[in-house]
Amino acid sequence: ASGIMAVLWASDAHWLARGGPAAHKVAPAFAAFVSWLVPGVGHALAGQKGKGWLMAAAVAIVFTLGLVISQGHGVDRHFFGLWWSCAALFGPGLLIVSLWTGPLQLAGEIPPLLDFGVALCTCAGLMNAMIISDAYSVAERGALSAAGEPAEATA
Question: Within a 10 A sphere around the Cβ of 143, how many other Cβ atoms?
């Protein structure tokens, strides 16, 4: 979480150094932050609601599929710490699911596709990292075009 916050603060400092808020819909760092909280919301705030809904659905489906395949063990921080740290990019949803599935014990037989479920949960977090980055750039492009900068400078 501290790494994510450092990136967002650095992004906001970059944004302020480029001239800060103009007549735009949302600050890029805020769009990135809310995309970490709830995937796709940053795009919706930046004016791309359809793209936001599509991205939110894709990440949620991959994460849920990973949980179902791993029978709830795909976000076990104790056994899969490195994988869990990447899945943490999914946002607070991972923390809630981790608390909910934390008491589950691997009793007896290990689920046959446990590794695949863990990998899907991790992929959902990494997908959300791309969504966060894209939300920042979409909001920045919208703000810079509203400020009158040429489109080539924002590409």
Answer: 25
Q: How far apart are CA 82 and CA 71, in angstroms?
A: 19
Cβ count within 10 A of residue 21 = 11
- In this structure, are residues 96 and 87 in contact, taking their beta carbons and an 8 Å threshold? no
Distance CA 57, CA 93 (A): 14
Please identify which residue in the block is written with the tokens 């691997």: 106
Tell me the pTM. 0.70
Amino acid at 112: P
Which of 56, 34, 59, 55 lies closest to 125 in space, CA to CA?
Answer: 59
- Tell me the angle at which helices 28-37 and 114-147 cross, rounded to the nearest 10 degrees: 160
What's the pLDDT tens digit per position in 20-30?
Answer: 655 456 888 88
Q: Is 99 exposed, middle or buried (0-12, 13-18, 19+ CB in 10 A)?
A: exposed
The tokens for 89 are 């990019």
Q: Alpha carbon of 120 to those of 59, 61, 68, 123: distances in Å? A: 10, 10, 10, 5
